[in-house]
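To: structure subgroup
Subject: Chain for Friday's discussion

All,

I'm putting the inputs and outputs inline so they're searchable in the archive.
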Amino acid sequence: MKNYKYLIAWIGGKSRLRKKIAQLIPNDIKGYIEPFGGGAWVLFYKDKWADLEIYNDLDERLITLFNVVKYHPCELARQMCFMLSSRKQFNEYLNSYCVTDIQKSAQFLFLVNHSFGSNCSQFATSKSRGIKSAYGIIQRINEISKRLDKVLIENKNAIDLIKQYDSKTQFFYCDPPYSKGAGYKVCSTKDFKHEELSQTLKTIKGRFLLSYDDSPKIRKLYKGFEIINISRIKGINNINVKDKEYKEILIKNY
């Protein structure tokens, strides 16, 4: 098994937890589905989870990027070769408009890789590691393109997607917006309907594994399911913070 790293860092990404999550995914599934795909860190952890694999997200920037990586990796890599890792270039891309999907994806990939917390709004560089390697980004494009070969990429409401593809042989890894914390461009933590997701997952035929922040509200919504306590080191804004540990939970129906 080849352990693919990732294509992009992303808000709420599971870089520090995906090994633990992967250990909990059953081996006898026929379909592996991520309704809240994001950076797809868990999907890319393994070269194949099941015969049917589906990546879904509401953010059209992500959908466009993964489709371009899948079908036009060479042209995307060529575009990336002309992008300079500089604050000037970053600020220019913040206020520019691209026409083609390849251009949009190259710009988005550049902004994600050179922004603080992958927020695509603030230029950032490391005091110890310097700028991101352009070669490393291009190498990841080629690797992920191969990994996406038989992955179906969807752009639907997560609840609708779960209902559409649900069956006894399907497995859903759900990583929705948390009840507290950073939000997403397409859905803030305040707007997301946690109750609706809970009601949907309680009625499905398939199996699910759900990652969430550890909060009384979420524990109440999923009372009766197995809840696993986990924690990770806080990723950003952890300097001068007394408690660097962030507590999360994994919830499953199997």
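Points worth raising on Friday:
Residues 134-147 form the longest helix (14 residues).
The mean pLDDT is 88.

D.
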